[in-house]
Fold:
Amino acid sequence: MLLVGTHERQLDDKGRLALPAPFRSQLGETCYLSFGTDQCVDVVPADQFEQMAAQLMSRVERGEISLAQQRVVSGSASVVTVDKQGRVNLDENLRNYAGLRTNQGVVVSGNFTKVEIWAPEVHARVQAEGRNELAGVGAPPAAGNPAKAATGKERGSSRQAPGRGR
Structure:
């Protein structure tokens, strides 16, 4: 079964998060938490995390990603047990990475094989970008402008960040 849907939750004062009921049975009693892409926290079932780790190591061996990226993911990961109330504890390192604060709201969203935990403002930005791309409003950088994909700037653009001279 796929992990899908989006839910609003709140971290308690100890950094615990009650996982939405539809996700609990699919995640099992133990799962992994780690840094995710786009500044979220990934919640991954144990068997899926082991597969993901093997794929990550293969990508490093092929030179597709750096060893530094593998180190960050493995170093940020922790095995957690879902308690009787369906909660997991997000340690301070994970909360800081994702901009999550205790006693504040978070967004818990399924991404087919894993669950992602987001700060609401980051989730809103990422969702807007994805909706625009899906609707054809904003093409991915590589497809829309090869120069922008390589440099981060539009071809022929002379705009610079405020306070930076030429």
User: Anything to note?
Assistant: The first helix runs from residue 21 to 27. The chain has one domain: 6-142. The radius of gyration is 18 Å. The domain at 6-142 is CATH 3.40.1550.20 (Chemotaxis protein chec).
